[in-house]
């Protein structure tokens, strides 16, 4: 057996352990009995430790060294060579985190998430605060272990978005903010043009679930290798390449959360289901980065799911599914309703223009938590101040404010910026696909999503993690990462929606 | 840290890995997407191998040896001493099975079960046969690894029922057969006395599920630490002591499968939920044996669930749940219907008198498969011949014959006899509880199951696996294991049902 094969075999086994941990986590959010919480945290912690030990064992190190010798004779761009390069990259990171630390992080993450769920339900930040303090301390410790140059936050960011820094994100966000804050202001002055009242009518939940399953299947999410279940906070969970599950949350009197949430999670799911099977269970068989992932979810949720073309196709079906409910609402009014721009409290329900401001708020707060410039006890107040500053609204309670997201409880510090980067990349990729296939909009008007799906499959999903995100974007679009497609998209679309183009 | 504590810590981690494997298996039967099958088998296989490696590692052996020294100073009956004794017992067994063999067995088990599911659905024994041959060969190999004196089947039996042999089971079964075959014959001559037509009416499935949840909760199955889901073949799965799940199968036009199946699985679940928490994740924190387990499921399914006392309480509720359906059926006629004795094809639907004959058939066939006296290719014919011989009926197809049970596909050879032993033990335990608390029947008549529940909890569940089954029975009942309570119960009950007492 070659060292490369030994390395692949070890990756397969490590992958199996993570696969089990993923199922344990999925189950914890879906079907686990309430009384099982404590044991579940511990079990996930043990599996994480075992996987970490396997990834940092002497046996692994020997196989990796041997494989590095073997690939010297291969093309640098070959899958084997790329696999070994990324294996070394990940190994060097992994050995920086002690096994006991990884175990503790996993256990605290699981328990803290359970506490957060109760705290959110009861609007009880005090209950969550000690767990968040513990989590921040662990994240600070992780940054020290992983190492950084300018800002401890860089080390955390790098876990999700390789090679980008706090300073670079800040620069991109400053540029986005310069364009979007005036845009929000400009639209707010003409807010009477659009009403989303039709979306706040009664929508039978069972029908919502049926449509969510129908529409996600239409765009290409594969239910032979997936499923959609209810959870408090929607997510996409990959058990393995043949089993990628998504979740959603329905509101009886609000159409958006389940429908657009499902398109969003299905976008993630389609990416995972489309990863190269030949590379599955290797370090290059996964997604390229978290922002690339988010680009795929936002593509289907917004670029497609909130486009006029899509609703020319789907609006008659929606009207038929909810008899009488939308009879008095024209296609154009419905299209405007789903694209209404309003400062709101909840990030996952935010429109495309204000969304990034929610992300910026979290980025600023969490990077200050990590640097020690902000204490957990002061977080709710600072959250509310930032909301006032960016969106001119303040949550009446913490459940709709600082407690709304799962991320901090679960330990995803450095993750939020990837949401906004994902928006930028989604527009850039969609623009490139449209240049290559100008018929895509017409196809979507007829319910055919295959050209767009296949372009993404070929240029993004099937590439796995062979290339860094910037290189992947360059190969797919022929351009550097840029905010211009995204800002152009926002200007055109919301100019149209608010009838103010050229105003 | 003492060696005992090291050993406990290792057991905790091993237990976590098995816990993950249990969830993977539960999920495979309930919510896993169809396309994920192959990966799932492999993942479960990897976890089994990891757990086996942990249970047989040098680190484990050192901790065990150290702990054996430490417990020499403790009372032999102390939990620590008993834990270490069983740890040695299990270790000696585990090291007999090579890690690769355990891995292969687990993978084949998982895949073979998937093939069985399709084969059963399509009535296609040929499809399943090569997998069954592979499984038989693996079981024969396991028997050789484990070792035996008289019969290779002894080695397999011992995995479920410590210390019992093929010869002993044969003797018990011969004695049961001597009494039950004439009884079946005697009842068959008076079959017109009882009709089960009322059970074959239309029972709305949603209502069936509601009642199944209600009645299992009433007898003491805890839904804060459990759940009931639909599967093709009902089972009870312990993720851990705080998360014990049961499954069921509803038939729209037959009342029995879900109602009595759920009582049965809840009986298993109550045992698992009642195991001593202080000993959880140790070798003595589990159930005493498979037959002891079955005694608890049969107790609630039959001894209680098919008793006149129970239905004096529950029949008005049942009539109310299915309006008009049972208006013309008296309590006594319903009681007779659920206790009708008829030779049938399906073991899990068999009455209490013919049930053991189904088990004997399987015991005889599987012990001959293992000894090599019977080939898989000849199995369907021999199955049908035995059905003719014992029950005077022959299945029209293999789906209702040799393909009906999951056991052989999953690798549970040596397991079937524990079903009949469970019946025997259930009667013996129930008789002892009644001697101590003669009010139990009256309490059940008023829907109070607590005295019986608590007696089992104290005398069986809370004992864990401290004692061998025979010793546990002796401690609980003051008697040796004996078929007399069971045979007396059958004689009394079915004498009453068929109005033939003293005939």
Strand ordering within the main sheet of chain A: 1-3-2
Point out poorly predicted stretches of chain A.
none
Helix amount of chain A, in percent?
55-70%
Q: Give the second-level CATH assignment, the architecture of the largest domain in chain A.
A: Orthogonal Bundle
Query: Per CATH, what is the topology of the largest domain in chain A?
Result: Neurolysin, domain 3
Radius of gyration of chain A: 23 Å
Helical run tally of chain A: 21
> The biggest beta sheet of chain A, please?
3 strands, mixed
Oligomer: homodimer
Q: What best-fitting shape of chain A do the alpha-carbon axes yield?
A: globular
Structural classification of chain A: mainly alpha
Largest binding interface between chains? A-B, 39 and 38 residues
CATH class of the largest domain in chain A: Mainly Alpha
Q: In percent terms, what proportion of residues of chain A is strand?
A: under 5%
Number of strands of chain A: 3
Order of helices and strands of chain A: HHHHHHHHHEEEHHHHHHHHHHHH
Please tell me about this protein's structure.
The structure is a homodimer of 503-residue chains. Chain A is an all-alpha fold and 503 residues long. Chain A folds into two domains: 145 residues, Methane Monooxygenase Hydroxylase, Chain G, domain 1 (Up-down Bundle), CATH 1.20.58; 332 residues, Orthogonal Bundle (Neurolysin, domain 3), CATH 1.10.1370. The first copy, chain A, is built from 21 helices and three strands. A three-stranded mixed β-sheet of chain A has the order 1-3-2. Chain A starts with a helix and ends in a 6-residue tail after the last helix. The model of chain A has no long low-confidence stretch (mean pLDDT 94).
């Amino acid at each position: 057996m070659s060292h490369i094969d030994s390395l692949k075999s070890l990756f397969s086994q490590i992958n199996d352990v993570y696969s089990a941990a993923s199922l344990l986590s999925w189950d914890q959010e879906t079907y686990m009995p309430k009384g099982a919480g404590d044991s579940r945290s511990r079990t996930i912690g043990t599996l994480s430790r075992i996987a970490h030990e396997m990834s940092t064992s002497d046996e692994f190190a020997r196989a990796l060294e041997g494989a590095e010798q073997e690939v010297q004779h291969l093309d640098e761009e070959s899958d084997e060579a790329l696999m070994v390069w990324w294996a070394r990259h990940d190994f060097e990171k992994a050995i920086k985190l002690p096994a006991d630390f990884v175990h503790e992080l996993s256990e605290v993450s699981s328990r803290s998430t359970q506490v957060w769920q109760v705290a959110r339900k009861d609007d009880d930040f005090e209950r969550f605060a000690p767990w968040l303090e513990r989590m921040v301390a662990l994240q600070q410790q992780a940054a020290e272990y992983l190492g950084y140059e300018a800002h401890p936050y860089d080390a955390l960011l790098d876990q999700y978005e390789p090679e980008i820094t706090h300073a670079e994100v800040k620069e991109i966000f400053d540029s986005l903010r310069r364009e979007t804050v005036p845009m929000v202001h400009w639209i707010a002055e003409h807010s009477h043009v659009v009403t989303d009242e039709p979306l706040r009518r009664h929508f039978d939940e069972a029908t919502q679930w049926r449509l969510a399953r129908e529409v996600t299947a239409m765009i290409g999410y594969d239910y032979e290798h997936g499923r959609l279940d209810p959870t408090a906070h929607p997510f996409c969970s990959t058990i393995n390449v043949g089993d990628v599950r998504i979740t959603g949350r329905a509101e009886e009197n609000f159409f958006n959360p389940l429908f657009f949430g499902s398109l969003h999670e299905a976008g993630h799911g389609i990416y995972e289901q489309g990863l190269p099977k030949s590379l599955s269970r290797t370090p290059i068989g996964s997604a390229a980065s978290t922002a690339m992932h988010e680009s795929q979810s936002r593509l289907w949720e917004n670029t497609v799911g909130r486009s006029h073309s899509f609703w020319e196709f789907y609006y008659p079906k929606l009207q038929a599914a909810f008899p009488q409910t939308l009879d008095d609402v024209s296609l154009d009014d419905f299209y405007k309703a789903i694209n209404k721009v309003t400062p709101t409290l909840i990030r996952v329900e935010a429109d495309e223009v204000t969304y990034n401001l929610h992300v910026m708020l979290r980025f600023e707060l969490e990077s200050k938590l990590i640097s020690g410039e902000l204490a957990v006890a002061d977080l709710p107040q600072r959250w509310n101040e930032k909301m006032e500053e960016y969106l001119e609204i303040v949550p009446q309670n913490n459940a709709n404010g600082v407690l709304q997201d799962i991320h901090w409880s679960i330990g995803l510090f450095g993750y939020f910026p990837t949401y906004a980067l994902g928006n930028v990349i989604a527009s850039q990729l969609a623009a490139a696909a449209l240049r290559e296939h100008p018929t895509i909009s017409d196809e979507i008007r007829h319910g055919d999503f295959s050209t767009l799906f296949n372009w993404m499959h070929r240029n993004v999903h099937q590439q796995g993690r062979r290339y860094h995100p910037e290189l992947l974007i360059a190969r797919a679009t022929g351009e550097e990462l840029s905010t211009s497609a995204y800002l152009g998209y926002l200007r055109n679309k919301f100019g149209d929606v608010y009838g103010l183009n050229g105003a």
